Amino acid sequence: MKHVGLVRAEDWRDFEVLETGDGMKKERWGDVVLVRPDPQVIWPRRSPSWGACDGIYHRAPSGGGSWDFRRKLPEDWTIRYRELTFRIRPTNFKHTGLFPEQAANWDWFSARIRGAARPVRVLNLFGYTGGATVAAAAAGASVCHVDAAKGMVQWCRDNTALSGLAAAPVRYIVDDCMKFVEREQRRGNRYEAIVMDPPSYGRGSGGEVWKLEDGLFGLVQAATRLLSDTPLFVLLNAYTTGLSPTVLATILSHHVPDGGSLTCGEVGLPVTHGASTLPCGTFARWEA
Fold first, then answer.
1. Cα dist. 280→174, 225, 227 in Å?
2. Are 197 and 252 in contact (CB under 8 A)?
């Protein structure tokens, strides 16, 4: 197991973290500037106010929150990363439909897909709006994108089309990820690569409670059984504050094939003013 420290997604042009502090971050999404909460930001901000911005998300004392927009924004707009295009839309849960720090992982696995010189089937579990799906498809893989939320899967379709990949071999599946994995085992379907981005907490359609700490080991165990006889890589992401990269790598080590290399670390984003880096999550990667 090798720790690679913090890997930053530094090649964005349409996105930028401008400033952080007081539990918030100020970001530029194209020409729109938003201020949102971030649990990692436990230091004070340097300036007395956030200055000019187009919207601030305020948390409610009882949970949840709402946006305070300073000007009328379009319902959605697009930003680009390399050859990829993504639809951005502020949601009621503070998110915008994209985790830009994951570009560091997109670059990592895209290089491996292109370098494989053979067909690569990628299973993207908890695929959200499809950042990893679009990146893998652009690199030449066929992708199975799975998420329990129908709206997120449609958003992935939109991003795939916006990136000029509407005809790419992508399967869009609306389903509980664990149940889908179990069915894929019975069907005998296999994949050369797996990307897993499970949430910290969630509820299934039948009211089932998902807690990352309780369910992660079993999820990884079940998912890695879908690896083909010629696997390429497995990527496991986590956003749970306090969950170390070593924990992810240790879980992954129980289930990946012998041989290959196992690395772990953090992903982060450069910050233009103040703190140099915003930590955004942890990962573990195995590659043959």
1. 27, 29, 28
2. no
Predicted confidence band at 204 (pLDDT cuts at 50, 70, 90)? low
Taking only the tens place, the pLDDT of each residue in 127-149 is 999 999 999 999 999 999 999 99
Q: What is the CATH number of the domain that holds 51?
A: 2.60.40.1180
In a domain, 137, yes or no: yes
Q: Taking the chain, what is the end-to-end CA distance rounded to the nearest angstrom?
A: 13
Pairing between β-strand 32-37 and β-strand 261-270 as defined by DSSP bridges: unpaired
Residues 49 and 135 in one domain: no
From CA 87, how far away is CA 130, in angstroms rounded?
A: 10
Which residues have CB under 8 Å from 157's CB, separation 6+? 130, 172
pLDDT at 10 over 80: yes
* 54 and 32 Cβ atoms separated by less than 8 Å: yes
Are 173 and 55 found together in one domain?
no
Place 213 in a pLDDT band, splitting at 50, 70 and 90. confident
Other beta carbons less than 10 A from residue 167's beta carbon: 9
Six-digit token string for 141: 């893989």
At 80, the amino acid letter reads R
pTM above 0.90? Answer: yes
Element (H, E) at 31: none
- The per-residue pLDDT for 187 is 97
Radius of gyration of the chain (CA): 19
- DSSP-H helix ranges across the chain: 103-116, 131-138, 150-162, 177-187, 212-224, 245-253
Do strands 2-8 and 15-21 pair parallel, antiparallel, or not at all (unpaired)?
unpaired
Residue 175: which of 152, 155, 194, 199 has the closest Cα?
152
Q: Which amino acid is at 52?
A: A
